[in-house]
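Narrative of accomplishments. A recurring question from our advisory board has been how the design workflow behaves on a single, concrete structure rather than in aggregate. To address it, we present the structure tokens for one chain from the evaluation set, followed by the sequence designed for it. No filtering or post-editing was applied between the two.
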């Protein structure tokens, strides 16, 4: 399956699967999507706590990377299993 790296509306990149016209992240913004889904409506609810994350399907690694960065800002002790 052919893949291509494309630029999203927020300037970040994602991978497009050409045969299916699908992307790993939103064309409107890969970073914006990751913050909306994983930080605003997920990680931020657990500030100052310990959590464990199980990731199945690493993809581009963007969600894991942003989660790691924000966990430090939110004083979250993070255990990652992937």
């Amino acid at each position: 399956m052919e893949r291509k790296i494309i630029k999203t509306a927020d300037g970040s990149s994602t991978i497009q699967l050409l045969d299916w016209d699908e992307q790993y992240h939103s064309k409107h913004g890969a970073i914006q999507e990751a913050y909306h889904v994983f930080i605003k409506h997920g990680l931020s609810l657990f500030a100052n706590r310990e959590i464990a994350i199980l990731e199945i399907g690493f993809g581009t690694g963007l969600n894991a990377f942003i989660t790691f960065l924000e966990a430090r800002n939110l004083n979250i002790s993070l255990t990652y299993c992937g």
